[in-house]
Amino acid sequence: MQPGQWLGQLRGLDAFGRTSDDARIRTNVGALITLLSGCLVVILTLSEFFEYRRVSVEPRLEIDLARDPKIAIRFNVTFPRVPCYLLSLDVVDIVGDMQVDINHDVVKLRLDSQGKVLDNAGDRSLKGEAQRYLEQQRGDPNYCGSCYGADAPPGGCCNTCEEVRDAYIRSSWSFSNPDSIQQCRDEHWTERIRAMNHEGCNIAGEVHANRVVGNLHLSPGRAFQRNSVHTHDLVPYLQGQGDEYHHFGHVIHEFSFGTMNEFRAMRGLTKAQRALKGRSRKQELGISDALEGRSAHPEQSQFMYQYFLKVVPTEYHRLNGQQLQTFQYSATAYERDLIPYDPKLGHASPDDSDGQVVRTVEGVPGVFFNYEISPMRVTQTETRPSFWHFVSNLCAILGGVLTLAGLIDRLIYRGQKQLGGTSSFDDTDNFYHNLDTKLL
Fold first, then answer.
1. Where is the Endoplasmic reticulum vesicle transporter N-terminal domain (predicted)?
2. Where do the domains of the chain lie?
C-alpha cells in the first residue's frame, strides 16, 4: 500500500472538516458576534490571569506539637495616676514559678499630670539620693548599715533605704514606716515619695514566661511570698476618689505574645526607629492584638482590672518556603470594684446588682492579664493555582466562547428558516441583508 493511500484512509477521522470559501456566508451579524466573542475571551482571559496570580490562604486547625518551653510577652502600658516607684510587675504561673518586681528589659518613664515625660536628668531621683548617701558613708571603710532584723543580702549589710526595703520583702515584712529607718531618713526617702504621688508612669518592655497558664500583673507595692500566697505591700498606695488619689486607670498601647526571638529585632528601638526598621511579623501577617488601644478610667481607686486571654499559636507558610511563627489571642475584660465586703449584707456595699453577690476571693488594685495557651495551633498556608491549571482554564474559555458564539449564529439562521418557511440561500441572504441594514 502506498503511503498516500494509507494517509487517505485516515481522512475519515478528521474532526475539523472545512468548507470552501464559496459556500460560506459572511454577514455583519456574524462579524458582530465575532467581535463580541473576542471581547469576552479577552475579559475572561484577564480575569483568569489575575486569579492565577492571586495568592490565597488556606487555614487549618491542628494539634500544637511545639516544644519551646517559653513564650515572650511584649507590653507598653501607661498609668496616668500611679507613680513609677509604686508600680510592680510580676509574673505567676500554674507550675509555681514566680517572677517578682521584674526590672530586666523593662523601662519605666515618669510622667507629669499632663502625661508628658519628665526629664529625669534634671530631677533628683530616689536612686540619686541613695548614691549621694553612699558617697557620704564611704569615708568610713567599716560602715555596714543595719537591716533591722530582716533577711540581709549576701554582703550582710543594708547601706541604702532600698536595700532595707528589699530585705523586708525577703522576710515577708511590710515596709510601713520608713521614717524609723536611718538610711531612709538620710536619703529623704519619704519626701521624695510624696513629691512623686501626683505623677504617672509608662512601663514598657518584654518578659519571658513559661508556656503554661499564668498571669502577668501590674499592681502597687512590692510583692512577696507569705505562706505560699502571693502578697503585695499596699502601704504607700493612696486610696480614695478623684485625682488626689492613686487609681489604676490605664491605656494599653501594646500587649502582644510572640516567640522567644520574634521581638529581638525591635528591642530597644523607639516608635520612629521601628517605623524605619519596617513592619513587625504580626503586621506582615495581618494579625492585630485584641487589647491594643484599649483604655480604662475609674472614678475610684479600689478597682481591679482583669483581662482573660486565650492565646493561640499561629504558623504561617509562605510560597517561598519561609515559615513564620507567632501568637494571636482573644480577650475578655472584667472590672471589679474592691469596696470592703459587708458580712451583714452578704455582698459589697453599695450594691447596684439585682441579686446577691458573694466574693470568695479578695482582690488587689491593679491590672491583671490572665493568659491560657491553647493546645491547638492555627496553620495558614499560602497557595496559588498551578500554571497548567491556568492553561487548561484558558483552553476551556476559548473553546466555550467560540462554541457558544457558533450556536447563537446557528440559532439565528435556523430561526429565520423556520419563520420564513424556505431554505433557499437567496432567502437567507435577504434575511441577513435586512438584519445588516437595521444594524447599520
1. 10-99
2. 25-54+385-439, 66-118+199-383, 119-197
